[in-house]
Amino acid sequence: MSAPVITIINVMSLPFSGGTWLNLMLGAGEDAFSIGEYRDVIYKGQGYAECVTHDTGCEVWPKVDVNDESADVFLQLAEVTGKKVLVVNGSRKTFEWQRHQRIRPVVLYLQRDMRALVASALRKNVHGGFMKTLRSYAHEEVRMRKIIKRSGFEPVSVLSYEKLKADTAGELQRVSQELGVAFDEGQLSYWEKDHCYIGGNRGTLLNMLVQQDKQGEHILKKHQQSGDIKWDFSTYSKKQDLACLTDERWRKELSQWQKFVIDMTLLPFSQLMRLGI
Fold first, then answer.
1. Which domain of life is it from (predicted)?
2. Which of 58, 92, 202, 257 has the fewest CB atoms within 10 Å, i.e. is most exposed?
3. Phi and psi, residue 59, nearest 5°
């Protein structure tokens, strides 16, 4: 009897697009497991995977040899967790590990309004000034499309963050069908599952722990993510479904000129992605 094939959903998105939220929802299915930002393990070179959702006592990652940079990392995870679907924030290096007879890799590209992304990056002072941030996002969008296209992975499903917010269940069902995986109602209450997550967005992870009636201070300490910590804590430390939380700060933070420049510079890239170019 041949070994079972596992599906890896590679969530691809630009920074501050909601990738952590989507990753957690997809990984809350009965047969799924959310890995998170595995590239943190690769590029930090620390030789171990740090589960940020458990301050101590993670039952998954200590059993996986993360120094084995090959398909075996994913196959080990599937065996340890007993799951058939693994969800990971995709990266070019892990793409190479997925070319294995027991792995079926697929891609889910999450897109968000570029004005919200640029405003978020400016707020956190990630790239510097407005034009530098704009150029960085334009470059990253092109680079990501090339990585997806060169991977040859199929199918590739495109998902709008705004549509996901407006119709979470409907959009999850749609992309699940396109990617050939099962939709599970439990994905809509993903915080009820005990995730063993690597990296991720500080606010999203904090909100999940609050939903579980757990303390989340260690998330704030471990995540040296820049930005307004007070706003994050006051917003995400409330028991609320993130699908109901809308961050429209960009409307006031960006000038009319900045919004116009973003529309002319970055939105065409999103349109090309939808056309598969």
1. Bacteria
2. 257
3. -100, 0
Assigned domain for 260 exists: no
Those residues whose C-beta lies under 8 Å from the C-beta of residue 240, and which sit 6 or more positions away, are 207
Number of independent structural domains in the chain = 1
The DSSP letter of residue 200 is -
> Phi and psi dihedrals of 32, rounded to 5?
-120, 160
Q: In angstroms, what CA-CA distances link 155 with 4, 13, 44, 119?
A: 20, 16, 30, 31
pLDDT digits (tens, 9 = 90+) for 56-94: 788 899 898 888 777 788 999 999 999 999 999 887 778
Q: Which two tokens stand for residue 47?
A: 């030789």
Contact 52, 195 (CB under 8 A): no
Cβ(5)–Cβ(102) under 8 Å? yes
